[in-house]
Amino acid sequence: MNSYRLNHLRALEAEAIHIMREVAACFERPALMFSGGKDSIVMVRLAEKAFRPAKFPFPLLHVDTGHNFEEAITFRDQLVERLGERLVVASVQEAIDKGLATEDAGPEISRNRAQIPTLLNAIEEHRFDALFGGARRDEEKARAKERIFSFRDDFGQWDPKNQRPELWNIYNARIKPGEHIRVFPLSNWTEMDVWQYIKLESIDIPSIYFSHERDVVIRRGLVIPISGFFPPKDGEDVVKKTVRFRTVGDLTTTAGVESPADTLDHIIAEVAAARGSERGARMDDKKSEAAMEDRKKEGYF
Amino acid sequence: MTAEAKAPAFNSDAYLDMDLLRLLTCGSVDDGKSTLIGRLLYDTKSIFEDQLEAATQASISRGDENVNLALITDGLRAEREQGITIDVAYRYFATPKRKFIIADCPGHVQYTRNMVTGASTCNVALILVDARNGVIEQTKRHSFIASLLGIPHVVVCVNKMDLVGYAEDRFEEIRKEYQAFAARLEFRDVTFIPLSALGGDNVVHRSEHTPWYQGASLLHHLENVYTAADRDMIDARLPVQWCIRPHSEEHHDYRGYAGQVAGGTFKKGDEVMHLPSGLTTRVASVDVGGEPISVAFPPMSVSVQLEDNLDISRGDMICRPGNQPAQGQDIEAMVVWMNQDALSLGKKYALKHTTREVRCVFKEMKYRLDVNTLHRDESAVALGLNEIGRLSLRTTAPLFYDAYRRNAATGAFIIVDEATNNTVGVGMILGEQA
Ligand SMILES: Nc1nc2c(ncn2[C@@H]2O[C@H](COP(=O)(O)OP(=O)(O)O)[C@@H](O)[C@H]2O)c(=O)[nH]1
């Protein structure tokens, strides 16, 4: 009987809801890491499916680099308002001011590394014991091996050689005091699945995902948005381009793509034909092929 | 391929209506597993240009002549250095018909635990055989594990056919050898395909090199394996995971018992029984996100509201009065041990089964199984890392279970060491004294 078929998006949805409820049941202080990007927006929709008509049994946690796309912050605040859920903001600027974090060294301003101590500090302060992250295994090779329940020691570190076996849909949620886990409900989703789900569920996303005109410079072949934080370098020409962004990372490390895609259908068609993976648009990953693995071991998302 | 040419397939309703197929790849080192996966990803355009570039760079720095497709699927740094895969890695690709999740499992001796892990969620196992070597000890071990974990569909990929001159005789020889051995295993179907992962023969398209082969290409086969019957649609089972209680004016009396359907169907009006109480009531509503839906079936995550107010909590089971799971504290199971510290009889462990957490003690070891010969060693008293045995155990509270063969979702459990919190073993419950 065809009515008992579950298509791949609904199957992924069912898996993610199960994961979220399991965390809610097994941990005392979970939080959902909300970056304002499409993956975390999809997680929020899944949390609605898992827990409505009740409130979420956890707050949203935004690690705020201060280098935001304005559109993304406005979107965040409106979403939180509509949901009536709690938002906890962990500010990288504050962490830097307190001497807990330092700006990344190097030619590019980046607060990617500074997010790590900021996050770990927030975990300690709020005594979070489980954090939902929107990472997907298709994003990067190191992630392809990460468990859905990914165990962190009391320094927030991930040990790829020493992961717990994870079988069926039975998750081992036991931790010692001071330890925490990262949980990735979207582990088995691809970028395409996320876009298709956004379409299927008519989910609102920030406008920067859709093509728009913006001042940019072209640097080493990448389309870089220009802002107060990130002015053009000497000799660079600022040009107006029709661009969109495939990730809503730190404004200073997120490159755009030149694209006319201004609707979900166009974006989906573009993703289908894409020849650069999503992370390719993050400048910090270019540093080395093993860059992600190194940062993960340190406690990066 | 241009955007226009490819977009329609992904934009059509057909794409939104794709199935999800989870498959496992296993083979011993150098059988060509990484090359085959790289080939599937490459030929279905699931590799992005920058990932290909990274693999190309890595190939050049290793001194490989051509782009090594195997490097696309290679993972962590330590493995890159050793040139081997040491853990389960997950890969994704899609065709307009299906989305595929590959659990890529290691081939060498000491990693049974990884294969068991990868196998636990799969519908299909791809078992690689090097056409020159035929069925070897590891082929048998991988097949046995696939069968133990209840994977219904097996595809024996006879790889490197180019190195045996695409000879039909050799293929047939391997097929017969495998069939003779697999007769003892419980697969629903076994399919044989002659391949060259390196050359792409019979991977996506049927090859001109094997005119004698009448079957489908590997990808075509994977797109069409019939998996709808793999689920248990008969025994209604909802392990209660979480109770939704809004505590708000508007939803004052709302109580939703949430969980992932483990078997059968649930809809409004169904008479249901709650375990352990044994009380019966009816389903008032089946909801997702607080909105009613018409029917729930596996593997949907839903919540149900009931007509009567029963005392229900996490770890309980909702089923039908006329079709209840077995319940009890004495369990017999096949156990796979996954830790350095051997299983000890008499020691207390934590056990998690569906959403229920109890403690348990292993009482008796019936036998240890040699995964290569399937020989049962009844004199064995311990189960070490990567060993498999049949044991009886007793739990501190009853489990509501079915035989794993009938329903994996209510027949599987994990064992956790309470001192280290590590998952040290897993079990599959046996039926009424099989
Ligand atoms: N001639 C031939 N060589 C192959 C074929 N498939 C893989 N190989 C080679 O066999 C070696 C091992 O392949 P690899 O994919 O790394 O094996 P794995 O250890 O099973 O992942 C590599 O040198 C491959 O190029 C094939 O179909 N024909």
Structure description:
The complex is a heterodimer of chains A (301) and B (434). Chain A is of the alpha/beta class and 301 residues long. Chain A has helices spanning 8-26, 38-51, 70-83, 92-97, 115-126, 191-200, 264-273, 291-298, and strands at residues 30-33, 60-64, 87-91, 130-132, 149-152, 180-183, 212-219, 222-225, 239-245, 256-258. Chain B has helices spanning 3-11, 13-16, 33-43, 49-62, 77-82, 112-119, 137-148, 168-182, 218-224, 408-411; strands spanning 19-26, 89-94, 98-104, 124-130, 153-159, 189-194, 238-239, 242-244, 256-260, 271-275, 280-288, 291-293, 301-306, 317-319, 326-337, 348-353, 356-369, 376-377, 388-401, 412-416, 423-429. Chain B contains 10 helices and 21 strands. Mean pLDDT of chain B is 88; it is low at 1-12. Chain B has 434 residues and is an alpha+beta fold. In chain B, strands 7, 8, 9, 10, 11, 12, 13 and 14 form an 8-stranded antiparallel sheet that branches. In chain B, strands 2-3-1-4-5-6 form a 6-stranded mixed sheet, with helices on both faces. In chain B, strands 15-19-17-16-20-21 form a 6-stranded antiparallel beta barrel. The structure holds guanosine-5'-diphosphate (GDP). Guanosine-5'-diphosphate (GDP) binds at residues 27, 29-35, 70, 107, 159-160, 162-163, 196-198 of chain B.
